[in-house]
Amino acid sequence: MNLNLTGHHMEVTPALRDYVTSKLERVTGHFDQVIDVKVTLSVEKLKQNVEVTLHVPGNDLHAESSDENMYSAIDLVADKLDRQVLKHKEKQGDHHRSNGAVKHQVTE
Q1: What's the helix, strand, coil split of the chain in %, to 5?
Q2: 6-33 per-position pLDDT tens digit
Q3: Which terminal residue of the chain has fewer beta carbons within 10 Å of its beta carbon, N or C?
Q4: Residues 33, 54: contact at Cβ < 8 Å?
Q5: What is the CATH number of the domain that holds 36?
């Protein structure tokens, strides 16, 4: 997994970097085929914004969140990404094969 962490109007401290990586490891624990992660942390007056784009095979997952506290904004965006990754993983495994192809169905 390639992590790109940038700060917009703020400096990314090592504590923030460690917190983001620990939260994203939970997401990659569900789905290990994550190619690239781009995280942007920004500050606008009293609002802390977090934007994350996850590049997985066949799709790009994007989530953003804002809160008064940067750590809680990171928590919120990690929860959103977790749900998106689980849904993406479910879609990839499904392939609508409940009955199989027509030629493999049993005719009576």
Answers
A1: 40, 30, 25
A2: 999 999 999 999 999 999 998 888 888 8
A3: C
A4: no
A5: 3.30.160.100
